[in-house]
Amino acid sequence: MESVQMTPIKVLFVCNFNMMRSATAEMIFKDDPVLEVKSAGISPEAIVVIDEQLVGWADIIFVMELMQRQFIEQKFPDGSSGKKIISLGIGDHYQFMDEKLIEVLKSGVEAHLKKIFNEAPPSDPDSRCW
Fold first, then answer.
1. What residues contact 8, with CB distance under 8 A and at least 6 apart?
2. Where are the beta strands (DSSP E) in the chain?
3. Residue 119 — very low, low, confident or very high, per pLDDT cuts 50/70/90?
């Protein structure tokens, strides 16, 4: 049977400063063959500052807190319109690559991705690492 090449889902992870939560999410999901991931922060002091181009690039945006979703919707109304922006409800009290943060990110992101894939299953479900 011929394997079908699937286009990766573009996922953007967003927190405040792109130093702890979103940077950890990018690190732990970067090798998933079904995802193409980037991360950014909403603060002007963020390592990577979210912009219209990143919002437009993403198929799905995972924010750590509801306020980041609200920021994106207000600052980038055209780019975020109709886009899946999902709040994971992860507070700003973790360090980069904290074991508990990794656990919370994996369970939250994987649960949402499973729901999304149930709506539109990938052509090769065995290729997912989650």
1. 33, 34, 35, 36
2. 9-15, 35-41, 60-63, 84-87
3. low
What is this structure's pTM? Answer: 0.87
Q: pLDDT for 44-75, tens place per residue? A: 999 999 999 999 999 999 999 999 999 999 99
**N-term to C-term CA, the chain:** 23
Structure tokens of 84? 């899946």
Contact 90, 21 (CB under 8 A): yes
Q: What is the DSSP letter of 89?
A: -
Taking all residues of the chain, what is their mean pLDDT, rounded to a whole number? Answer: 89
Round to whole Å and give the CA distance between 59 and 47: 22
Q: Which domains, ranges and CATH numbers included, belong to the chain?
A: 9-124 (3.40.50.2300)
